[in-house]
Amino acid sequence: MFSFLILFPILFTLSASTPLAASLGSKSTDGYNIHAVLVAGSNTYINYRHQADVCHAYQVLRNHGVPAENIIVMMYDDIANNTENPYPGKIFNAPNGPDVYAGVSKDYIGDEVNPDNFLGVLRGDKDLAAKGKKVLTSGPNDHVFIYFADHGAPGLIGFPNGILSSDYVNKALVYMHNNKMYGKLTFYLEACESGSMFENILPDNINIYATTAANSVESSYSCYYDPKIGTPLGDQFSVAWLEDSDSHDLTKETLAKQFQDVVKQTTMSHPQQFGQKSLASLEVGQFQGEKSKSKIHIPKRHSRDLINARDVPLVILRRKIDRTNDAAEAAVLEKRFETLIAGRRFLESSIKKIVSQLCSYGYCSDVKRVMSTRQPLINHSTYSKVAEKFQSSCLNLGVHTHGMKFMYVFANLVESNNFTQSTLDLFLEDLERACNNHIVNHGFEAII
Ligand SMILES: *[C@@H]1O[C@H](CO)[C@@H](O)[C@H](O)[C@H]1NC(C)=O
Ligand SMILES: *[C@@H]1O[C@H](CO)[C@@H](O)[C@H](O)[C@H]1NC(C)=O
Ligand SMILES: *[C@@H]1O[C@H](CO)[C@@H](O)[C@H](O)[C@H]1NC(C)=O
């Protein structure tokens, strides 16, 4: 009796200050569950940061009460045990920060991290489920949170061995809407030129709110280069939202407020919002979990040390060269640096030759103009076919990510040509011919 009297006010205080959702995991009073898909689209140690961002996102959702079974993680998983990792079995998303790898579920690893599996996860693909793979099982009221981090190009995001177009991503989202796989959906996207994945394509009336690290014509930036780990640990936009979520009560912060905070922190690119922007008045907690928790210790601010994502491989090598006292090692690194530069020069001149050949076929009149302008991508479906042709006949952009830097020239050609199905088919053949002349078998291993 006595202890009940003491307990009662405590219980009362708890339930008054904590939303019901907290005691029920992700189940809110509105009867929705939170489901999440977290994807790192890269592999290899120079891209450490994408898997670090995704692991951190997993910790954010778990810390805020999203049940592990509702989170699907796709990450190559070649970082924690990488021979270059000085902290085996650990991944950090900030200098002196906590290990974000511990406890992360890995539902798709290695070559399973591919565009088809990502689309299958979104569509709740029955064949994948039959093979025992996790796919979205969300229903008409549920809230879905998608976070993707990798390299990008106009209308493209990368995977370790492939690419995925804006056309396919948005079709999958529309499929999810038509098949009542969510009540509300939020998509956070980190990639270069990521605004182009949703601009002129994502409908604004299907309860989807998307934010991107950059607009449609600019790079995104890595941050937190760590000399000992030898690579940037995060990306500026991603770290901005992740640390914002770490340090806020997500039942009190709206998506709009988080976006404003992220814009303030993302100094080198211009984060964008797309889709149904009225959703931004909802609490972040409705997508990232509503359990209140003690604030995560935020490491003391280091210089963010921002690097254009496209230059990261060069900057990493240059810093290693500057750091080493071993002349033999410096020579090896210097050679690698020169190979990278040569690969980039080769690619740039090849793209010019390809455009020049396409102009000679009548698809353009001024090579310089095609190379130096950036037309907004409108015909995503036609561009998607051109990008796939480039991927299959010219250069694997998943592996040779630097090629993404030049994909805008094909967006320009698509937008200036107003193709019909038959002229598009001819163009694709001509593109393949031009690539055979100028890229294939010219030793492009160095293009990263
Ligand atoms: C990393 O190494 C540890 C210890 O050898 C091992 O238990 C773990 O399975 C490895 N993880 C991966 C992803 O290879
Ligand atoms: C594009 O082609 C269609 C069909 O051939 C035509 O009706 C339309 O006017 C063209 N648009 C432009 C901007 O040239
Ligand atoms: C995109 O181009 C295709 C031909 O490749 C054409 O059929 C379609 O109408 C175009 N779509 C838009 C939105 O312009």
From TrEMBL:
UniProtKB keywords: Hydrolase, Protease, Signal, Thiol protease
UniProt-listed Enzyme Commission number(s): 3.4.22.34
Gene Ontology molecular function terms on file: cysteine-type endopeptidase activity
Listed InterPro entries: Legum_prodom, Legumain_prodom_sf, Peptidase_C13
UniProt xrefs under Gene3D superfamilies: 1.10.132.130, 3.40.50.1460
Family to which the UniProt record says this protein belongs: Belongs to the peptidase C13 family.
Name recorded for this polypeptide: legumain
